[in-house]
Amino acid sequence: MSDRELWSAGRFWRFKRPFHELRLTDRVAMSQMPLFITTLLTVFLVWAFFPGTMDNLLFGSFVISQLLIMALCYLVPWDRLPYTSFLVVPLLDFISIAVGREGGQDSLTGISLLAVFPVIWLCASSYYPKTSVWLSFLAPLAIIWVPLFLKGDVTPQGLTRALLLPVMMLGIGVSVSVLTRSMMRQQKELQDKDALLQANLRTSQRQEALLNTVLDTVHLGVLAVDADGHDILMNRKQRANHELARPSTIEDPNESQLLVYAADRTTLIPVEDRPVRRAVLGETFTDYLVWLGEGAAQRAFVTTARAMKDEDGKFAGSVIAFGDVTDLVNALTAKDDFVSSVSHEFRTPLTSILGYVELLLFDEPDESQREMLDIIRRNSERLLTLVSDLLASRNGQLIVTPHAVNVAELVRSSVSSALPKAAASGIVLTADVPDTLEAHVDGARISQVLDNLVSNAIKYSPDGGSVRVSLVEEDGNVACRVTDTGMGMTPEDASEVFAKFFRTSNVRRTAIPGVGLGLPISKAIVEAHGGSIDVDSTLGEGTVFTFRVPV
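User: That's the sequence. What structure does it adopt?
Assistant: Structure tokens below.
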């Protein structure tokens, strides 16, 4: 493309832009262009139908002045002059039109109507609005009256006859001025709104960049889905997790094709039970364990989902977090294997020790020897009980053999056995139970739970107080509550109290003996019955343990 063609294309696209985005010189030229084109058409009509007028000096001056004014629009550096200097152009147009009217009124009537163009220009410029409106009346009036005064042809009828055109121009000027101010107010409002939108957009972009940076920094996989299950956000870690779960033979798998396994690492989880599907259905859950991938690359993840709601409270999607806990799961497995191995190794010699102690006691030793043998037997039995508890905690779920049992009698027996220990600790131990309350449970296991809860209530009330055991039937369940006025726990400790080997910081400071297995085992026993156990505690005020099992 030649330089001339490039220049022409540039001029074309310059005028394709919105008017207010053009250079000042181009805006001045375009404002003058309607009058200039109309002048050319007027010249053509005069040349075609009234050739004699072309020789009129005034008409020729009109044509030449319009050419010069158009040239001035391009040649004068308006952007270097005071900004409103270009308004001299419409004022020159009024003079040019007045000359043209006098030179061409014998051929063409209505040349004075060309004054509408500078009137519109002045009033649409929005500069000096009152002056522009006055000029829209006075300038056309001068175009008609000045020649009358110069010729001395001044009569009331002549002056009055010429008022129609100035009044029309005044009406046009007022209308254009009002519309221009209205449009400018609207433009200002639009510009303000646009500036606000631009500021909001920049803020939104900064927040989006910050969010993406934070999400790509954390070691959690984060996935956001809409109400239809479509992915709307996935951070770098989650993309890696998705790739881990992708079968090697499928390039773009759907949810049902991903390798998502249950806790046993071999059973594929049904689609409806998978974390993402549950979240899409509106479920909220915490620490749901799954395994992604297969083989040596398989990893364990705990998943948490929270639903999103719109302003009407309707479900709008969910956010799911995937936390890699492979190392933790492997460590827990290794710990459980170690505990199980050590417990089995301890059981055999302890059983042997207890057997020989029983043989020695059977030989009726003297009093001093019997006392020492009783100490050996008591501590061996305590150690064997601890080993049994360790094995039970390793196995997780306990086997129970339910049968018809009077649970009220189990409570009375547990309380009766603990009375000497409570009295020694200065604790008032009471039971509030009905005469009979039967349930289909494993009596020995429920007694183990009761003994553990009552023993803990006494143990963790070192300053005395009271312990109350109550038993009622609630909604088809046997509900037993053990309430103490002991040291209590913080909410953080209460949330961890059923974890294996957990002991509160307050208990560790007071050096109260224990290994933190009684409550996990009690929880396992209750859950093996299809029941539940919970705790409500206030630090310094006391604790309430409640377990429920079906009747």
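The radius of gyration is 49 Å.
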